[in-house]
Amino acid sequence: MRMVDLIATKRDGGELPTADIKAMVEGFTNGDVPDYQMSAMSMAIFYQGMSDREIADLTMAMVESGDVIDLSRIHGKKVDKHSTGGVGDKISLIVAPLVASIGIPVAKMSGRGLGHTGGTIDKLEAFPGFDVELSEEAFVNQVNDIKMAIIGQTGNLTPADKKLYALRDVTATVNSIPLIASSIMSKKIAAGADSIVLDVKTGSGAFMKSFEDAKALATEMVSIGKSVNRKTIAVITDMDQPLGNEIGNANEVKEAIEVLQGKDVRDLKVIALTIASHMAVLGEFYPTFDEAYADLETRLANGAALDVFKKFIAAQGGDASLVDDMSKALETKYQKDFVASKAGYVSEIIADEVGVAAMILGAGRATKTDVIDHAASVTLLKKVGDRVEVGDVIATLRSNKETLDQAIEKMDHAYHISETKPEARPLVHAVID
């Protein structure tokens, strides 16, 4: 294999043979293929795309570049979920205990947040003492015991993807569906689950702003899953405004707990039940989605999922007493209200702007080395479609840094108020199976 010949083939719209894709990824991982050649290949893929076969080959080459987690000692059908991320996305904190409450094992690896999109691991560390680095034996035993565990990603999981993503980030080739799809699916496949449910976001706060792009990505990822014998479903959900009313870390945990206690936070509840129901069907617990949805909704109301969540926090060393009272984790030095400057209806909330406001307050990272303030938060008191009058409090901002005025400026850009009430967007746009 000559890397320059592969680059030329892809540059001219040709297909790369399976063996050459595997050799290319191996060479890049071990340093034989230099960054400048892989950058050229990434740009060629960005412009020319890849066939379904090529994307599946690239995915599996990245899977095989590092560790593959063996979950065979965990009893039952293992079902994983992945979200493409968004502002206020705390769905995993609801879905995992809900699915575990019916006996389906959830052995999940999650990441940290970078930028304004918070990671599940960051949120869970709002519980003092919570351990995200369980040994493989402890991880397996916990899932067999209480049916769920969530840990950070292992150091040698898909190293090729880590190297390639870092390169794409600095060469303007991140936004390529073949590269995004193979990146996401390589990690999910390496994590060892039997089946995968993908929560693909679309809207102003999503990576895929348009429904068409979200559908293309979802379709590609489902195709990859099926090509390697993983049952895979993608649900395209709305991220045109933040999910729920809380953005931050500890306060998102608080809101997830409230949903597990039976509170009807409409968008969170509907999307969580939808994702959980598809997981339950893939886990072969229910024959149909409708039966799963009805029973899981009951489990939200009766506290069964909340009980699993408490056991999960305690099992991983976290202070489970906070599940009953998160107030200690929410204390900050500073607080400021954002108020409406005119009357009307909230017609739009640009989720990205709210996410940046939360990051300014300390809830997110501008760089990987930044330290998260778990208590920094934005609470939305008005969502799209709500009526506001001049002076109404629209949102409350909290921080331990004196950056509230900067964050308020972002909130001013985020909220749009009009004279007419906007039409409601669907929470679930499509299911790709």
From TrEMBL:
Alphabetical list of Pfam families matching this protein: Glycos_trans_3N, Glycos_transf_3, PYNP_C
SUPFAM superfamilies per UniProt: Nucleoside phosphorylase/phosphoribosyltransferase catalytic domain, Nucleoside phosphorylase/phosphoribosyltransferase N-terminal domain, Pyrimidine nucleoside phosphorylase C-terminal domain
Listed InterPro entries: Glycosyl_Trfase_fam3 (IPR000312), Glycosyl_Trfase_fam3_N_dom (IPR017459), Glycosyl_Trfase_fam3_N_dom_sf (IPR036320), Nuc_phospho_transferase (IPR035902), PYNP-like_C_sf (IPR036566), PYNP_C (IPR013102), Pyrmidine_PPas_bac/euk (IPR018090), Pyrmidine_PPase_CS (IPR017872)
Annotated GO MF terms: 1,4-alpha-oligoglucan phosphorylase activity; deoxyuridine phosphorylase activity; thymidine phosphorylase activity; uridine phosphorylase activity
One of the protein's GO biological processes: pyrimidine nucleoside metabolic process
Known cofactor(s): K(+)
E.C. number: 2.4.2.2
Keyword vocabulary terms for this entry: Glycosyltransferase, Transferase
Catalytic EC class: transferase
Sequence ranges assigned to domain Pyrimidine nucleoside phosphorylase C-terminal in this UniProt record: 345-418
Family of the protein in this entry: Belongs to the thymidine/pyrimidine-nucleoside phosphorylase family.
Biological function: Catalyzes phosphorolysis of the pyrimidine nucleosides uridine, thymidine and 2'-deoxyuridine with the formation of the corresponding pyrimidine base and ribose-1-phosphate.
Record-given protein name: Pyrimidine-nucleoside phosphorylase
Protein's organism: Exiguobacterium oxidotolerans
